[in-house]
Amino acid sequence: MLSKTDLLELLREKRLDFQIHEHEPLFTVEDSENLRGQIEGAHTKNLFLKNKKNNFFLFSCDENAKVDIKRFSKSIDAKNLSFANQEYLLQHLGIKPGSVSPLALLNDNDQNVAFYLDEKLFESELINFHPLINTSTITIKTSDFISFLLENNKKINIFSLKSYSITKIYE
User: Fold this and answer.
1) Sheet harboring 126-129: ordered strands across?
2) Are 100 and 89 in contact (CB under 8 A)?
């Protein structure tokens, strides 16, 4: 499993421009809003979900988005979604609660987690995620983030919370 140090090294090897911000541990959106300071770009909340068939989903959306999990579940044809527990989080993404980030998809070697990115985030210039630990935040160009995931064989479903539908798929 990748660590924060491994991830940062990989980003540097790819010559991606990013900023790293160190801060107190952030566990919730409220923590983030109160403790992160003035970090540019779109801020996120990341929902790690599963259904009864043990299919896993990661949805990264704007930190203030209201997500109807039941409607999201129906729209992606994944009946009965609920939040996955910390054992699944560690098993599939190699991270602990509070550190959920699509960058952890690099630890999903078996491609068990389907990734959905909020269209609002997709349209932002800069995006922020934890680099596998909640005491840091990475700010990166959204286009570089997309390219980075694609280079690492991760499929990205762009999802609209306005229409509750997938608007684009990157593979």
Assistant:
1) 18-22, 136-141, 126-129
2) yes
Q: How deeply is 37 buried, as exposed, middle or buried, from its count of CB atoms within 10 A (0-12, 13-18, 19+)?
A: exposed
Domains of the chain: 4-32+40-170 (3.90.960.10)
Band of residue 36 on the pLDDT scale cut at 50, 70, 90: low
Here the tokens at position 148 are 């980075």
Amino acid, single-letter form, for residue 155: K
In three-state secondary structure terms, 6 is helix
Q: pTM of whole model > 0.85?
A: yes
The candidate with the shortest Cα–Cα distance to 137, out of 29, 65, 39, is 39
Count CA atoms within 13 Å of residue 131 on its CB side.
21
